[in-house]
């Protein structure tokens, strides 16, 4: 199963200045995540809102048949992007999406917002 990192590219941290013409924090984080994931089996995509504005910047780590997670409160830094991708790679390697805490990259600790169970199989 492919693990996807879905990045909200419209996330804006409180100190983002629209008048500056700079990319949103979400756009910056998305570009960093895409670069960090370039040579991995993890796939990335951008969406224009994960509805977690109070927790921006937000990403979702998802795979069919596995636990799925929303993570937030990231700054758009290379360290955050590398941690997100490293966690997603461990998610991909797990059978059910659960990654033991001791294996979590430091950059993602304290950033979990929600966990979603896999959808049931259609009967």
Automatic annotation (TrEMBL):
<dbReference type="InterPro" id="IPR036249">
    <property type="entry name" value="Thioredoxin-like_sf"/>
</dbReference>
<protein>
    <submittedName>
        <fullName>DUF1636 domain-containing protein</fullName>
    </submittedName>
</protein>
<dbReference type="Pfam" id="PF07845">
    <property type="entry name" value="DUF1636"/>
</dbReference>
<dbReference type="InterPro" id="IPR012863">
    <property type="entry name" value="DUF1636"/>
</dbReference>
């Amino acid at each position: 199963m492919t693990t996807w990192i879905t990045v909200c590219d419209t996330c804006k941290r409180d100190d983002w200045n629209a008048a500056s013409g700079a990319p949103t924090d979400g756009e910056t984080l998305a570009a960093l995540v895409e670069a960090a994931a370039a040579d991995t089996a993890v796939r990335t995509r951008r969406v224009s809102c994960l509805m977690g504005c109070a927790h921006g910047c937000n990403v979702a780590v998802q795979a069919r048949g596995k636990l799925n997670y929303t993570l937030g409160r990231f700054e758009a830094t290379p360290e955050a992007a590398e941690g997100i991708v490293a966690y997603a790679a461990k998610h991909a390697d797990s059978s059910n999406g659960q990654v033991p805490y001791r294996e979590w990259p430091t950059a993602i600790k304290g950033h979990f917002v929600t966990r979603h169970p896999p959808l049931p199989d259609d009967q």
